Amino acid sequence: MMLAICSRMVVPYDHSNSSKKALEMAMTLAAQDEKIEVNVLMVIQPEIPAASLAMTPLLPRLELQHEGAQEIRKEIEQKLESLPNKTRTYVLDGDPAQVIEEFARVNDADFIVIGSRGLSGLKEMFLGSVSNHVLHKATCPVLVVK
């Protein structure tokens, strides 16, 4: 048995290929020690209303995003069932970078496993803006998975 790398892991997930790889990596690491708690976090960023969105009310779109997130959450929970570890999944609202960093701090996470690029419309040159923020602001070690 290897030494525990951590006791409480946070895995931000947005259904991108990068976050799927991060979840796989986190599960592989957690499988080394069943005392590691795995927290998978999905963050829904409320859209900023623009003039063109006046015809589409914001609330129903947010509800649709939540419905989609709940479907993905079920998939993740089924995937996590293969682990003997304690696992939890969360769907939260807000700015993803800030929510992830704050969640990790408030919940005493001691390790974050995050994908290098998420589903943002903008292609970052080196590292996604969310993973970059978390990497620099987190109070615990961060593993960025390519």
Automatic annotation (TrEMBL):
<dbReference type="InterPro" id="IPR014729">
    <property type="entry name" value="Rossmann-like_a/b/a_fold"/>
</dbReference>
<protein>
    <submittedName>
        <fullName>Nucleotide-binding universal stress protein, UspA family</fullName>
    </submittedName>
</protein>
<dbReference type="Pfam" id="PF00582">
    <property type="entry name" value="Usp"/>
</dbReference>
<feature type="domain" description="UspA">
    <location>
        <begin position="8"/>
        <end position="146"/>
    </location>
</feature>
<dbReference type="InterPro" id="IPR006015">
    <property type="entry name" value="Universal_stress_UspA"/>
</dbReference>
<dbReference type="InterPro" id="IPR006016">
    <property type="entry name" value="UspA"/>
</dbReference>
<comment type="similarity">
    <text>Belongs to the universal stress protein A family.</text>
</comment>
